[in-house]
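[Q] Does anyone have a clean structure-token version of this?
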Amino acid sequence: MISFYIHFPFCIKKCDYCDFLSFPASDEVREEYVDALCREISLYSDISGKNGDNTVSTVFFGGGTPSLLTTEQLDKIMSLLNAGFLVSKDAEISLECNPGTLDLNKLKDIKKLGINRLSIGLQSAVDSELKTLGRIHDFNRFNLTYSDARKAGFDNINIDIMSAIPGQDIESYKRTLTEIVNADPEHISAYSLIIEEGTKFHDLFDCDTNVIAGKNLPSEDDEREMYHMTRCVLGEAGYHRYEISNYAREDYECRHNNVYWTGGEYIGVGLGASSYFCGYRYKNLSDMSEYLSAYGKEKGILSQFGPNPDDLIKDVRLHEEVGLLSVKDKMEEYMYLGLRRTDGVSIRRFTEKFGADIDSIYGPVLEKLIKDGLMIKNGDMFKLTDYGIDVSNVVLSNFLLD
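[A] Here you go.
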């Protein structure tokens, strides 16, 4: 099984907190980009498509705002994937979208293309907080988009929400949680705001006063209460917390994200997209002009590749940050990615993957973390305790090997 991540970097307006590779662009640039994106997909289909042994189990359109893709552009991409790869009949095919960028007719059209899961970026149910974040929608617009998605037949919807927003307090965050539970989506991703370099929020942030553009960030105590409130409210509403920041109804965990957390292979196509394929981790070119040139209308360097994927992956004209993972790298990733999931990591699977007993590699670390109340052993599984999840960034750093 293999997965595809398809990056669409364009948006109507970049949000003030966003550090993703995204920006506004004209319709002409978007069309040129989609053409280049399709040529990149075709290149992979030539070396690892239906002639290979890879079945595509998930596809994820991320961004940016992929819902800005026209129906024709989405059809072109989906048709290319289906023609070039063995796409599983029950593949999970997700599209990120922002409220106000889809209407009922378009939602019906993309559903017919095989897209069967939506991830809607709400962030907050409070209009003043949405304005602070620089979002292009209000809560009413979200409700209209969500209602249209249900009318179009989507029965697998994720909603993104955010805590620790400037000006947010306990009561306003509780309102967001209540509204989301009332909407009854199948999946909820709940993140805490992080002030990242290169964002407008970072430029506006006064670290001495903990203020952004005249609005106070929630205190550490309030932020922690929001964090625990999320788990409590969503748990009581029947959502299972299966990863540090993700909650789902039964049978609705995000299969695509589980590929990342369990060490599965995936191909990232598009500007700056990351991949883990054939044992390599690598990243696409992040400069738009370089990307468009590499996958331009003239075949150019694309015609130079034969059936060996290594030649494609290691070519610096197409990729950057290429690295072949060592056994040590894979062990580290197995632990610090797998432990993000609340059911933890399998002792048996560790031995099967690496031919080594987990205690021989991580015995002292595991023993100390269990003694400190940060981890427990439950049958075949090692997993974080609730306290361990609270301080997961510190805990997971223990699994980096010298």
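[Q] Thanks! Anything notable?
[A] The chain is about 40% helix and 20% strand.
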